[in-house]
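Example (one chain per record):
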Amino acid sequence: MSFFGEAKNAFESFTSHIKKEIDNIQGDDEPSVQSQSNTENSSNIIQGQNGGNRFDSFAPPRTGNEAKWYVDGCGYMWAVSVAIEEARDSIWILDWWLSPELYLRRPPTENENYRIDRMLLAAAERGVKVNVIIYKEVSQILTLCSDHTKKALQLHPNIAVFRHPDHAPSGQVIQSELVSSIQNFSLKSLQLADVPADAFKALYGVNKDVVLYWAHHEKLCLVDGDIAFMGGLDLCFGRWDTNSHPLADAHPTDINKALFPGQDFNNARVYDFEDVTNWENNKLDRTKNSRMGWSDISICLRGPVVQDLRAHFVQRWNFIFEEKYDVRKDPRYTDLTFDPNGIPKGYYQENGMNSFAILGRQRQRGQEDPEVTERSFGGGERHHGHGFHLPGGPGGIFDRLRRGDVDNSGDSYGDRGSASMSVQLVRSCTEWSNGVAKEHSIANAYIDVIRSSQHFVYIENQFFITATGEDQHPVRNKIGAAIVERVVRAYQNGKRFKVIVCMPAVPAFAGDLHADDSLGTRAIMEFQYHSICRGGHSIMEEIEKAGVPDSKQYIRFYNLRNYDRINAGSAMSEVHDASGINYEDARREHDDIVGAGYDGRGEGTGAYYGRLNPAYEQYQEAGAQVRDGSKYDSVSACYMDYGPSIKDIPWSGSVEAEFNAYVSEELYIHSKVLIADDRVVICGSANLNDRSQLGDHDSEIAVVIQDPTPIESEMNHEPYQASQFASSLRRQLFRKHLGLLPHQVPTRPDDNFLPLSHAPNAYDWGSPADVLVRDVLSDEFEELWTVTAATNTQIFTKAFHVIPADNVRNWGDYKEFFSKLFVSPSKEDDKEKIPARYEYGHVVKEEFPGGVAELKDSLDRVRGSLVEMPLLFMDGVDFAKEGLTLNALTDEVYT
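Predicted structure:
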């Protein structure tokens, strides 16, 4: 029986219960008094923003911009630290989660001044005005601890922090009784197809003026009104990572080499940031467990588009100020005045609103769902059966460049003076989030760019939940329909065309998938499988219904996974014996010394700089006497370009200990990017799901980037003129996934660690690795991509019995392949079973009768982290039929 089915009465009954409970809401640890006048003012500024701009955005495409990409958090956060350090006037930050104790450069012991709270305080002390807006979570449901963030940052009059939204009328939060009823709610045989839209909305979002679960999800940092950082990376725990994505961070002879202190060493598949009160119980023992790698993308912008980002921030800030903070009369809380630079005067008012918008105007289009719009990408009109005019088509920016209509004198990818890019800000926002009419220009951009693409579309996103039509209720965004239409058109026209999607194998929620506390995880996975390949109306099914013999010839789905080796051999034992100190005890003191604690609590050891810290100091003194013990604390370089062979990496300790030291985990994709034809990039904070795309749910921002600076390339073995920005970003990502980038060392910054004000992107055009990924449609690239993914998948499946897997089709398979072998990652899993033989994520030794040498022979063939997405996983059962708890479904869908 399908997941999409018949839970109508249960949902209506529960949402009715919610409405009754709302009447009894009271109290908040941060009272938010709202005057009647402010309520009236808030309603007056709700207005239609889109005056005929492309994608119905509040902002038009703007030329004369610079853009720079950052793949993963290491280089991005270093660049942010440079910009903050150089700020002279203002720093504006929007974040879903901001961790004050986050180190922007690593290792922490060498970068004490680069913890973000210290950097913002130093900026405030030199006169910089710091304005921060963070998402205010329902504390019983998400433990982002925004209250701690606010208190930890507001240490100077020049720093002001807003938390938003409040979760009840007049700014009061939902009481624990209501939250408890949500957490404990469960539906048996849950199916969502027949749920009325109003009932689902009331249960899962906004009920009148009460914001239940929608979130501010943007990630934005604006410095001096001149430079902007945005994309998928929050400035919070768990996001910093290198291109190599090491899973191990145990350093037996020198703890100061640790890259992931405190809560930054996180594996959301085992524990999440959840137990704030009993913080010490929320730890991974890094001598036994791996972290989970974090793959992400952000960008840096300069030019006129920064003014649109400033306008968006001012809109949000002033809306929240009038709604919540004006009546507090705290001198640090004031409204902002917008004075744009570099764009035509009169486009925005001083409050950031569009000057041409009529107050209270609600455009009819603004109330529609984000389906395929008639206003096409590049401004062309729709051609039935032939897509849309492309920017690279007749009259497009590439033709104008060739004709000389665009001044490109002196532009090159290595020229810091290049500022020729067209960049348009698009967003998802509405009354509750920005005090404006609903805007879903991100969804419009996705749909139009997909429909207008000529050769390929690459999507890398944390989620993939979309609909191909009206039969997949409650899913409403129609990005899936655009993919189907474009693929079918390519088949009918006899054209080669590809869609490649990279997404996580499993949502980053803790727990064994068979455990009761993973019902929500299974529900989200079911939504995704029904979007991709199951349920009767998925993308692949609809493509084949239209006459395409094999949809896999046009669209494929992939995940990322990697491995590492924990250096917990004899060197660690030697240091322990010499010092009398356990590694984890010394490590906890180290983490308290660098101040990497969550919610300000830390490890509770009392250790800090300037005092005697006996465990840490005794361990470090003993470790200095052991030679070469930390040379191979991670082996993540082995699957990167020019990396050593795993067979050549020595091990100090027993064979049994080395077997137990190997670990694997999914490399979690948190990116939110679409690249079409190596000419167009959409990058921002928006996931590919309804929460991010509909406009009246989570608030999001993204940019559509077209760089006219050409690069000679190939497409399907034919000469092709690509965009330098789009092509270099796509090639950088593909090379990372295929292991064609060198190992990244965080203490060796290059130009890709710097903001645009210092250097553009560095990319090695024409190198052997670059040539391998140049032509997405070539047979040679397809073989490289598919064979690498297949080989990696086979190795990981055998060595680690990873879940999900194609050979696991039902719960019986699941038990035999996984459950009976491994300690459950779920703390709620109380199923009776034979004690497991292996810790979660470790090697299944019986698969290698030849011993650890056979294992190394196998792992030596792993390249990069690309693996196939197992589309057959659990296709023999209704994966979510046992029901779900609302809390499990909603908790981290925000992420």
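Caption: The chain has a mean pLDDT of 82.
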